[in-house]
Amino acid sequence: MHLRTIFFTAALATTALASLNTSREYQLQSQLKPGQADKKRFDNLWLVASHTGAGLNDAVLYTNKSSGIKGFANDTNITQSNGKPYFNQLFDLGGAFPYDLYIADVNFYAAWEPVRINAGTGAGGFFFNSSGLQWDESPGSKVGQNSFGGWLVCDWWHGVPQLFSKWSYYHLENPSSCADINLIPRYV
């Protein structure tokens, strides 16, 4: 009886994860923004979750496509001004539950913040446009003020390039160990 319960629980968890996947799977690849010829090492990298604790990961980028994690969009009930939905950016890391991409709010006075890929299902506010993955920190807000300033990749804590989110209201030059990138979906 106990073994049957384990299989039933595993089947339910797998079904729950599959039901969240409302889009075609993709991997996110870095695309170096123009005017940074000396930063080619940050181009054509693949998003990976770097384990930092139980259910916790930092978003990093590897050169090997096969290391890239598979993402999917889970639509929210909040829509953009163009009528398209915002979504939760989720990843299937091979477990019974999804992992969520979110911007860590660790310092209100920092020009950029670390990006995490942690167990869970919903920071929301993500969407795609011609420049790839974007984020709106307060989707559905009538204010119309989005502080997201783009993606930044830096040689930082992990010995591989690490992903950060920039705030639009800071107009600072990037450190020499960082580059501005787009995150482009590559469908699998």
What are its keywords?
about 190 residues, about 45% strand, mainly beta, Trefoil (Acidic Fibroblast Growth Factor, subunit A), two-stranded antiparallel ribbon
- CATH arch. level architecture: Trefoil
* Oligomeric state of this protein: single chain
Using the alpha-carbon principal axes, give the shape. Answer: globular
- What fraction of residues sit in β-strands? over 45%
Distance between the termini: 39 Å
Strand pairing plus helix content: what structural class? mainly beta
Quick check: average pLDDT?
86
Largest sheet: 8 strands, antiparallel
Verbal overview:
It is a single chain. The chain is mainly β and 188 residues long. The chain has a single domain (2-187), classed as Trefoil (Acidic Fibroblast Growth Factor, subunit A). It is 10% helix and 46% strand. The protein has one helix and twelve strands; from the N terminus they run αββββββββββββ. The chain has one helix at residues 2-20, and strands at 26-32, 46-53, 56-62, 70-79, 85-92, 99-103, 112-119, 126-129, 132-135, 148-155, 161-167, 178-187. The strands form three sheets. It has an eight-stranded antiparallel beta sheet, with no helix packed on it. The protein has a two-stranded antiparallel sheet with strand order 2-3. It has a two-stranded antiparallel ribbon with strand order 8-9. The relative contact order is 0.21.
